[in-house]
Design brief:
Rossmann fold, globular, transferase, Glycosyltransferase, 2 domains, glycosyltransferase, Glyco_trans_4-like_N, alpha/beta, 7-stranded parallel beta sheet
Length: 370
Amino acid sequence: MAAVSGGRAGAVVFACMDADTLGGIQRVTHTVAQGLAERGHEVHVIGLHRAESPFRYVERPRYAHHVIHRAPVGRLSRLARRREHRALGRLLRQVGPGFAVLTSPSVVTRVKALLPGRLLPIGQYHGSYEHARGSWHLRSVRRHYGTLEKAVFLSEDDAWRFSEQELLPNTWSIPNPLPAWPDRTAGLTAHRVLGVGRLEGVKRFDRLISAFARARRNADGDWELHLIGEGAERDRLREHAAACGVADRVVFRGTVPAPEMAREYLNGSVLGLSSEHEGLPLVLAEAASYGVPSVAFDVSGGVRSLVPHGRTGLLVPPADVAGLADALGGLMASAPERRRLGAAARAHAEAFRPDRVLDRWEELFEQVTR
């Protein structure tokens, strides 16, 4: 059934619902696409829909980029669906033999049947097993991913759980890659906690603000929480910071361009992650690569793979704001402990260097075509 003779010989198509929104799936897709293209693969990134606010991830892409629909993600008419099938069919017929990486359950159901036989389907799932179990995703993954060449998850823990508990016979794990490996590390002397991500409900930055407000009572008075990102929750979070008495200590930074994020990590001392659910949140790996320890809710195998508790950072039970405050407060009060955890975090983050993750992708391609 092999379409190509080896991992390096194949074309690679990445298909997303929307390839250009500011988000984790999109960022990982463009990073891996660029890396594989630089290794000599013919690479295509396909967005089924146009992004409402397109974000440019790669300045000089070496891969082809395609958008099928001019409309943002939403329900399609029968006519629009037929047009999608024709457009995808024309595009995919022009691609050489290789692999089609379908980046979500929705993409699997829309694209798999349209793939020519020379493009072997690989399904990605960017969430955790815990998140899938609480949504329609689990039913879709169970129904469709077992029929693909491989089902790729973000951590060994998630791959094992899908294999054992959902009887998927074809699981594989590949973590999200860092965009680059920094040659400098943070001094960890700035009194600054970082929160990085979209200001949306699922990220629960209100809990991070509450925990910071409690932690600050027992720390030096000039500590600040810098929230980096934009979203619909911004005004509500401002009000929440005021209600917690830290309106002057929570700084809303807005969106920071990717090339400027290095400065933010270098000026941080702790990263806080307070999400309701995550797959493998790249901000934890990015902070670690700069030697910045993290405090996070223990919401997934991906989080646990990035932050081994007590070694590279601190984990607390999901939604435990008091526990998050205690963990934050302990690191805010101890520069030596920040340095100990930060050094171990950087060493641990080596596994997420771009070249190592690209090696894993090519190992997967070779395994599929063996």
